[in-house]
Design brief:
The chain has 516 residues and is of the alpha+beta class. It has 9 helices and 22 strands. The protein is 25% helix and 22% strand.
Length: 516
C-alpha cells in the first residue's frame, strides 16, 4: 500500500487507507493518468473489491413504489409535526380571542359586564379590557391565573396605523405591561422593572410602518401587526381593589392620529368562531394566520421553505386536495403525535431541578424554540421573561411521584433560603385544567404578602399543601383539590440574580414532601 501511495500521490481516503496523486502526475499523457487511476480502482481495501466514494446505496433512487409511498408519509409526518408545533401559539391566540368575545357576550346577558370594563359589547381590536376582580375558580379561563394581580388586556391590530399607549406613574406597587406578538413570544415590556415605574407615552409600531416618530413618544417596534398586551397590577387583597381600579383607568390607548382626542379606540370586527371544518383544518388555519402575520426572521422563513413540501405556503392558500395522499396521511399522524408531545412537555417545562421543580431560565422570549413556545401557549398563553418573573411549577413531589389531593405535603424553606425577590413571591395550586382550586375558605394562594403568615422560631417557613385545613391552622395553608391530580406554581416576580445561576438556585427550591 505504501508503494502505491508513493507512486500515485492521489489523496483518496477509504476504510483507513490513504492513496495520494500529486498535481505533477497530471502532466503526463492522458493514457498515463488513466493507467494510474485504473490501478487505484483495482486496489483491494479491507475486503472491498473497488473504491466507491459515492452516496450510500440505501439513499440512491428508489425503484420500489411501496417504499416511495412510505417515504412520502414519513415526510408528511416529520414536517407536519414541525408545522403544527410552530403554529399552535397562533391557533391559541385566535381561540382565546373568540373565547373572550363569548365571555363578553355572556357577561352582558347576565348583567355582570361591570366586572370587566370594555367587554360588555364583546372583544374589539385596540380596546383595553379591565378585569375589576381578582381571579377565582368560577372564572374558568384555563390560563393558570394568579391571584396576586388584576389583569387588563388588549388584542392589538397595527395594520392601518400605530397606537399610542399612555401609561401612568405607578410608584406604590409592582406592575408590568407585557406585549407579545402574534405567536405569543415576548416583544416588549413596560413597568416597575423595565421602565422604573415612570409615566410615558409609547408608540406601538407595526413592522411595515416607516414614518417618523412624533416628538414625545417612545417607539416600541413590534414584529407582527397583530398580537396581545397584558397589564398586571399588584393588589393587596380585596380592600385594595378600588385603588387598583383607579390605576387601571389611567391607562389609555388610541390611534396615533387621534392621540390627543378623547374618543373610544375601537376597530369593530366580526369575531367568528375559528373555522375547524375540512380536512387538515389545523394546517389551513396556521397558513391563514401566518399570511396575516408573516414571519420575517430569515431562520423562520427558511423553515417555511421546507413546509412547501407538505402544501404550506406563505404565498398561496392551503389546499388539502392538492397534497399527495401519502403525505396527508403522515400529516394526520403528526397532529396526534404533536398533542402527545405537548401533553408530556407541560409537565416538564425547561428542566427538572433535583427537588422536581421545573426550571425555566429563559421564559417567553422563545426565539426558535418552538416546542417551548407551544407548551407555554397551552398552559399559560403568555409567559414572562425570567428577568420579570420566574414560574417554577411541578406536578411531582420530591420523590418524583405525581401530586394528588388525597395526600398531604409540606414545603419547608430554611431561614437562609427564603424566596429571593425584589417584588413578591407566591404559591398557587391548580387543577389539571389550569384553573384555581375551589375550596370553602376561598383561599387560592399563599405567599410573602399573605396576612397572618407564620415563620418558625428559627426564621424558616413551612407551607402545608393539602385538601383540608392543617391542625396548625390555616395561616400557612395552600388548599388542593380532593383526591385529584394537581400542580403547584411557584412565582417569583423580579427574582434576584441568584435565581439565574443553575448551581445556586437549587437551594431555594425545596421539595414537596409527602406526609405519612
Amino acid at each position: 500500500m505504501n508503494k502505491i501511495a508513493a507512486v500515485l500521490g492521489l489523496a483518496v481516503l477509504s476504510a483507513g487507507a490513504l492513496i495520494t496523486l500529486g498535481p505533477g502526475d497530471f502532466l503526463e499523457s492522458d493514457n498515463g493518468v488513466a493507467e494510474k487511476l485504473k490501478l487505484v480502482s483495482s486496489v483491494i481495501v479491507e475486503g472491498r473489491d473497488s473504491l466507491d466514494i459515492g452516496p450510500p446505496k440505501s439513499m440512491r433512487a428508489s425503484t420500489d413504489p411501496e417504499r416511495d409511498k412510505t417515504a412520502k408519509e414519513e415526510l408528511g409526518y416529520a414536517l407536519g409535526m414541525q408545522a403544527y408545533l410552530y403554529g399552535i401559539p397562533s391557533l391559541r391566540l385566535e381561540e382565546f380571542r373568540f373565547g373572550m368575545h363569548r365571555v363578553g357576550s355572556i357577561a352582558s346577558m347576565l348583567g355582570t359586564s361591570h366586572l370587566m370594563k370594555g367587554i360588555g359589547d364583546g372583544v374589539q381590536f385596540n380596546e383595553l379590557l379591565h378585569v375589576r376582580v381578582l381571579s377565582t375558580p368560577e372564572l374558568k379561563v384555563g390560563l393558570t391565573p394568579n391571584v396576586d394581580t388584576t389583569y387588563s388586556s388588549m388584542f392589538y391590530d397595527l395594520r392601518t396605523r400605530p397606537l399610542v399607549l399612555s401609561v401612568p406613574e405607578i410608584k406604590d406597587r409592582y406592575y408590568s405591561v407585557q406585549i407579545v406578538d402574534a405567536y405569543l413570544s415576548n416583544a416588549a415590556y413596560i413597568g416597575t422593572r423595565a421602565t422604573n415605574s415612570e409615566a410615558g407615552k409609547y408608540l406601538l409600531v407595526g413592522p411595515d410602518w416607516q414614518e417618523d416618530i412624533p416628538e414625545g413618544l417612545i417607539p416600541i417596534r413590534l414584529p407582527t401587526n397583530e398580537g396581545f398586551l397584558a397589564i398586571r397590577i399588584l393588589v393587596d387583597g380585596q380592600a385594595d381593589l378600588a385603588k387598583v381600579v383607579e390605576i387601571q383607568d389611567q391607562f389609555d390607548i388610541r390611534p396615533l392620529a387621534a392621540s390627543e382626542r378623547h374618543s373610544e379606540v375601537i376597530l369593530p370586527v366580526d369575531v367568528p368562531k375559528p373555522n375547524e371544518d375540512g380536512e387538515l383544518s389545523q394546517y389551513r388555519r396556521i397558513v391563514e394566520l401566518a399570511q396575516r402575520n408573516p414571519p420575517r426572521d430569515p431562520r423562520t422563513l427558511s423553515m417555511w421553505q421546507s413546509f412547501e413540501y407538505i402544501g404550506l405556503s406563505l404565498d398561496r392558500p392551503f389546499d388539502s386536495n392538492s397534497i399527495d395522499p401519502a403525505i396527508k396521511k403522515g400529516m394526520q399522524r403528526a397532529l396526534k403525535s404533536t398533542t402527545d408531545v405537548i401533553a408530556w412537555k407541560v409537565k416538564y417545562r425547561g428542566y427538572k431541578s433535583k427537588s422536581k421543580w421545573n426550571v425555566d431560565l429563559r421564559g417567553g422570549s422563545y426565539q426558535q424554540d418552538y416546542l417551548a413556545r407551544a407548551e407555554g401557549a397551552i398552559q399559560g398563553l403568555i409567559v414572562h421573561d425570567s428577568d420579570e418573573g420566574m414560574y417554577f411549577h411541578t406536578y411531582h413531589d420530591g420523590k418524583g411521584e405525581l401530586l394528588n389531593g388525597g395526600d398531604d405535603y409540606k414545603l419547608h424553606f430554611t431561614a437562609d433560603y427564603l424566596p429571593p425577590v425584589k417584588a413578591f413571591w407566591s404559591l398557587t395550586a391548580y387543577t389539571d385544567d389550569y384553573n384555581l382550586v375551589e375550596n370553602d375558605s376561598g383561599r387560592y394562594s399563599v405567599g410573602d404578602r399573605s396576612r397572618g403568615l407564620k415563620y418558625n422560631p428559627d426564621g424558616s417557613l413551612t407551607i402545608h399543601v393539602q385538601s383540608t385545613p392543617p391542625a396548625e391552622g390555616a395561616s400557612n395553608w395552600l388548599p388542593t383539590p380532593e383526591g385529584d391530580l394537581f400542580r403547584i406554581n411557584f412565582r417569583m416576580y423580579m427574582p434576584e440574580p441568584v435565581m439565574k445561576e443553575k448551581d445556586k438556585l437549587e437551594a431555594y427550591l425545596p421539595p414537596l414532601v409527602k406526609q405519612a
